Structure formats: structure tokens, C-alpha cells
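Class, study these two lines:
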Amino acid sequence: MKRKQIFLALAVLMLASLACNALSGGGGGGDTPVDPSGGDSPATAAPQNNSGGNADTSASGFPITPDAYNVVDVGDGNVLYYTKTPQADVLKFYRDEYVSRGYTERALLTTVSDGVFSIVFDGDPSGKAIVIQSVDLGDGSCTVAISLTDV
């Protein structure tokens, strides 16, 4: 249980850090999109629909909810955005999206509590995990942070 609390605290700190960085304009590395598979080449520069038809994709290639706004590609395989989609639906969206792509949810690292969730998927070609975290802002919107990281 203590491990979950520590992970949740770190997740909230990471979201807060990403939000502050995004709101302050980045700090330099967020201008060039990065390929989430870990490659050195920049990813596509504009959001576009993927072949699945339901999800848009960020400049880094991560799926984002159709109503995503203030999408910021922070760089280094990190994306932060805001959505008005209810948080439970955001969680379902990512579970459906990544499972349909053949990824596996790492249940031990999944944390869902009132107003916050963190979920981890394995299966990316880079060997890294996809970490998706969300915080309800209390005004009908929530933040979503997606990162490609070693967990």
C-alpha cells in the first residue's frame, strides 16, 4: 500500500511539473516533437487522425481524446493536454486504445482514486512503458500527461 502512495505522490508531482512547464512556455525542448518510439527523428508536426478512426494523435504520435485542447508536446516523449471528457471516460479511452494496439496494462502500477489516475502499458517497440496520468481540475476538465519512460 505504501508503494502505491509513493507512486501516486510522484505521479501528482510529475503532472504538476509538466503543467507548470507547459503554462510557462516550455523551457526550450518542447518546440521540436519527439518520436515516442525513442528514435532521433522528429515526429509529425500537427495533430491528425490515426487509422483507428476514434482517436486523434499528438505530434509525438500518442493517442489523445477527440476534444483535447492546449496540447503541448513537452519533448522527450512527453505530452500534456486538457480535456472536458469525464475522467472515467478518459481512463476507458486509453485502456481501449492501447489494448486494441496489443499493449498490456501493468496492473500493479495502476492507481485510480477520486480525481486522479495513473496507468502504465507495456508493449511499445522501444521497450519503454507508456505512462498515462490524469488529474481532475474540479472545473469540469482534467489534465492528461502521457510519457514514454523506463518504469
